[in-house]
Amino acid sequence: MIKHTDNSLTSINVTYTDDIPEREIRALSSFQDVFSENIRRRILITKDIEKEEEGIEYIPLWRWFLGRYRDTGDLMDRKRKNKEV
After folding, report:
1. So which domain of life are we looking at (predicted)?
2. Are 38 and 68 in contact (CB under 8 A)?
3. Of the candidates 12, 24, 36, 70, which lies 20 to 30 Å from 60 by C-alpha distance?
4. Three-state DSSP class for residue 16
5. Sheet holding 39-46, edge to edge
6. How many domains does the chain have?
7. CA–CA gap between residue 4 and residue 82 (Å, rounded)
8. Which contacts qualify for 59-68: CB closer than 8 Å, 24 or more apart?
9. Which residues lie across from 56 on neighbouring strands?
10. What is the DSSP letter of 6?
11. Containing domain of residue 23, as a range?
């Protein structure tokens, strides 16, 4: 978990597989249940899946290592900007 300067929270879970165990998604859902008002992002780092589903960002480990998603703006902000253009 990352606590940002504005007190919002980002949850990061890692599973090095593309066959995501349900427990990984449940963990991020439980995080949302407890901290719902303060959540900025929920991230699941995977072997090679890249998508956004039900408010969870799935990011391949190799892309995370490249630093593309380490910033706090990231995937969802880029999607919003692309829709506005």
Report:
1. Archaea
2. no
3. 36
4. coil
5. 2-3, 9-14, 39-46, 56-60, 51-53
6. 1
7. 25
8. 61/14, 61/16
9. 42, 53
10. T
11. 2-84
